[in-house]
Amino acid sequence: MCTGRIDPQFVLKAFEKGADGVLILGCHPGDCHYREGNYNALRRFHLLKKMLDQFGIEDGRFRLDWVSASEAEKFVGVINDMVKKVKALGPLKPAPPLPLSKKKGRGDIQAEAHG
Ligand code: FES
After folding, report:
1. 66, containing H or E segment
2. Domain count along the chain
3. Atom of ligand 1 nearest to the CA of 38
4. 6 Cβ inside 6 Å of ligand 1
5. How far, in Å, from the CA of 53 to the mean position of ligand 1?
6. Were both Cys, which of 39, 52, 71, 101 would link to 57 (CB 3.0–4.6 Å)?
7. 49 is in which domain, residue-wise?
């Protein structure tokens, strides 16, 4: 499949289900069969990375890289590097519950946002 098909929810779901890391590998820029799938994936990746950072998910747990079918050595290298980084980070710690997860009225949320 094309990296352009990757919905950010797939990544969030993987972390939610207990993945310690998520690695997305796609065709090199300019080589996407669907022309712009990997460019779309790259844009989503940067947005998602910022969001994951807000959730406290460390930088090394989410990676996007380009590897063609003829680059076996690079493929192995990227996988080994990702595994090494995720092992060094250890298991993903569950995030503390968000304060908004409690049932509150709209006014309560606005009051908290403004101090
Ligand atoms: S076919 Fe789109 S990234 Fe490979």
Report:
1. strand 62-66
2. 1
3. 3
4. no
5. 26
6. 52
7. 3-113
63, 65, 64, 56: which is closest to 92 by C-alpha? 56
The pTM of the full predicted model, rounded to 2 decimals, is 0.80
3-state secondary structure of 62: strand
- Taking only the tens of pLDDT, the chain with its 115 residues reads 899 999 999 999 999 999 999 999 999 999 999 999 999 999 999 999 999 999 999 999 999 999 999 999 999 999 999 999 999 999 998 766 656 555 555 555 544 455 4
Distance between first and last Cα of the chain:
46
DSSP alpha helices (H): ranges in the chain? 8-16, 37-54, 72-89, 106-113
Whether 79 lines ligand 1, by a CB cut-off of 6 Å, is no
